[in-house]
């Protein structure tokens, strides 16, 4: 994403708008209910002649959309971050007019698709982006530990694993932090984690508008090509084999899954067997030479 933003900045007058779309939510709302309303409302917002006229009037040429989900005391809070590539920077008056138009349209489509009516003040947030960095205090909430730093567009949109919720708001991966929780709280966190996994399975978290990657000179690479590029024949690699029946016992246990990942990242392969029965195999040039000796 940083490559695309730098490409656009090099264009004469190339600028950005950063929009956040939210809806009201309650504790008893399911994540699926709110996420469906959110994504379907945005799909409706950017369709049809009114949107085409709006995009042409404000010079919107491309977009990158990211879905973010947090969990707070008022329940699930899915929201959209949208980065628009615009031909020129908008004046303050133009930006206020654009936000008003987006807000009215957004409120109508959220209700149409079964969501709770967003407030006119908070439903749509529209900000300028300059020099490849998000100049928005709104996004500072995503990094509690350093509110003063500036953030690259790519990190804000794509690195959900780096983001931290604001105050009582937790990202899905923060739900796996069970430290200091009692048994009931752990069970609730585990239930929420499973709900998030099941609801978001198969959904795209990040979407580029058609033609943007090609225009920016970014080549799409599929998973197999990435795997082929990995230096697997040059370094030793440890693989862990877990039998299907053993995996089924832990696959819905967030605490155990988190522990397995922590041990793998630390290279403590032998300790994984204490969580789930498994066998570790080391392969690569160094292992082959050792066996030959």
Number of helices: 12
- State which percent range the strand residues make up: 15-25%
Radius of gyration: 23 Å
Strand order of the largest sheet: 6-5-4-1-3-2-7
Which regions are unreliable across 5 or more consecutive residues at pLDDT < 50?
132-153, 229-235, 287-293
Number of strands: 9
Give the domain tally: 2
Shape: globular
Structure classification: alpha+beta
Main sheet attributes: strand count, strand direction, barrel closure: 7 strands, antiparallel
Instruction: Compute the separation of the termini in Å.
Output: 48 Å
Mean pLDDT: 78
Strand and helix order: HEHHEEHEEEHHEHHEHHHEH
Determine the fraction of residues in helical runs and give it as a percent range: 40-55%
What do these coordinates show?
It is globular and about 60 Å long. The chain has helices at residues 2-10, 31-45, 48-58, 92-112, 153-158, 183-200, 212-215, 223-229, 244-250, 254-265, 269-272, 285-292; strands at 15-21, 60-72, 75-86, 124-130, 133-134, 151-152, 206-208, 237-241, 279-283. The chain contains twelve helices and nine strands. The model is unreliable at 132-153, 229-235 and 287-293 (pLDDT under 50). Helix 2 packs across helix 4 (92-112). Strand 2 and strand 3 form a beta hairpin. 42% of the residues lie in helices and 19% in strands. The strands form two sheets. It has a seven-stranded antiparallel β-sheet. It has a two-stranded antiparallel ribbon with strand order 8-9.
Give me the secondary-structure topology.
Blueprint: H1 2-10, E1 15-21, H2 31-45, H3 48-58, E2 60-72, E3 75-86, H4 92-112, E4 124-130, E5 133-134, E6 151-152, H5 153-158, H6 183-200, E7 206-208, H7 212-215, H8 223-229, E8 237-241, H9 244-250, H10 254-265, H11 269-272, E9 279-283, H12 285-292
Antiparallel strand pairs: 1-3, 1-4, 2-3, 2-7, 4-5, 5-6, 8-9
């Amino acid at each position: 994403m940083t490559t695309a933003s730098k490409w656009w900045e090099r264009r004469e007058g190339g600028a950005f708008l950063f929009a956040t779309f939210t809806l009201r939510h309650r504790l008893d709302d399911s994540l699926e209910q709110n996420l469906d309303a959110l994504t379907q409302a945005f799909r409706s917002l950017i369709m049809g002649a009114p949107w085409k006229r709006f995009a042409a009037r404000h010079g919107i040429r491309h977009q990158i959309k990211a879905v973010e989900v947090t969990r707070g005391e008022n329940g699930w809070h899915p929201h959209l971050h949208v980065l628009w590539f615009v031909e020129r920077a908008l004046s303050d008056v133009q930006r206020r007019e654009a936000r008003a138009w987006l807000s009215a349209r957004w409120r109508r489509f959220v209700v149409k698709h079964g969501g709770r009516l967003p407030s006119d003040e908070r439903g749509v947030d529209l900000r300028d982006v300059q020099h490849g960095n998000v100049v928005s205090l709104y996004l500072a909430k995503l990094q509690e530990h350093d509110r003063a730093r500036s953030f690259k567009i790519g990190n804000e949109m794509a690195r959900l694993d780096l983001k931290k919720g604001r105050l009582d708001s937790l990202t899905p991966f923060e739900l796996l932090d069970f430290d200091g929780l009692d048994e009931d709280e752990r069970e609730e966190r585990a239930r929420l984690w499973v709900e998030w996994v099941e609801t978001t399975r198969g959904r795209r978290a990040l979407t580029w508008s058609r033609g943007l990657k090609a225009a920016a000179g970014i080549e799409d690479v599929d998973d197999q090509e990435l795997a082929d590029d990995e230096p697997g024949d040059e370094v030793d690699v440890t693989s862990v084999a877990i039998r299907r029946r053993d995996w089924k016992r832990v696959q819905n246990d967030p605490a155990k899954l988190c522990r397995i990942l922590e041990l793998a990242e630390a290279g403590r392969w032998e300790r994984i067997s204490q969580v789930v029965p498994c066998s570790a195999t080391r392969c690569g040039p160094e292992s082959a030479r050792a066996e030959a000796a």
